[in-house]
Amino acid sequence: MTNVLMVLSAASHWTLADGTQHPTGVWAEEFLEPYRIFTEAGWKVQLASPAGVAPTFDAVSLSEGGVGSAERVAEFESRIADLQPVLQHPLRLDAVNAGDYDVIFYPGGHGPMEDLAVDDDSGQLIVEAVKSNTTLGVLCHAPAALLAANDKKTGDWVLKGRKMTGFANSEEEIGGLADKAKWLVETRLVELGAEYSKAPEPFASYVVVDGQLYTGQNPASSVAVAERIVADKS
């Protein structure tokens, strides 16, 4: 059986440049759709978060504006309710081992920019995954977690030169938060030496695969990146 670890942010806010706290968390679609696709494939999925804290879902990701329709909101809310026994008891991130999993997957939302971007346990999990060539899926704002993936011996960023995508600066601008942020995902990835690319149009589905690294640009990429991982490992 294929074993999957989904690493979720424990943050319920994102601290902006002026110090204010913007409510956020995990983007619902980016957790729910990959979780569905992985479990429907017959894979075993476990969750982990910093300190084993149950995730907060970004309220916008459970609104009509965030998902497109009242029916979709109701579907997501129902699925979250059904998954409460799983969501309320994630593993502690400091207690998991990359070697126990075939796939490690990070959903987005602004939450990872608050905690996983500076979380050493998450960073070293990613380092272990990269060095062991474990399949690593990272979606939307979750490439923020990649920023912490520094080799402890050399201090080098282990993903330098790798092809990837993530939430684009243009998308952050359209969302109205780009000029309020301390930093932006696209900018930081490029600064660190990633070979970043994005879809021609904002918010279009876009997936980049570089070896065992699978990245999706935005919520619209949730299904595509998870399906690509399942297809490649089947």
Automatic annotation (TrEMBL):
Domain DJ-1/PfpI: 29-231
Sorted UniProt keywords: Hydrolase, Lyase, Protease, Stress response
Gene Ontology CC entries for this record: cytoplasm
MF annotations from Gene Ontology: glyoxalase III activity; peptidase activity
Record-linked Gene3D superfamilies: 3.40.50.880
One Pfam family matching this protein: DJ-1_PfpI
Superkingdom of origin: Bacteria
GO biological process, one term: methylglyoxal catabolic process to D-lactate via S-lactoyl-glutathione
Family designation: Belongs to the peptidase C56 family. HSP31-like subfamily.
Record's protein name: Putative intracellular protease/amidase
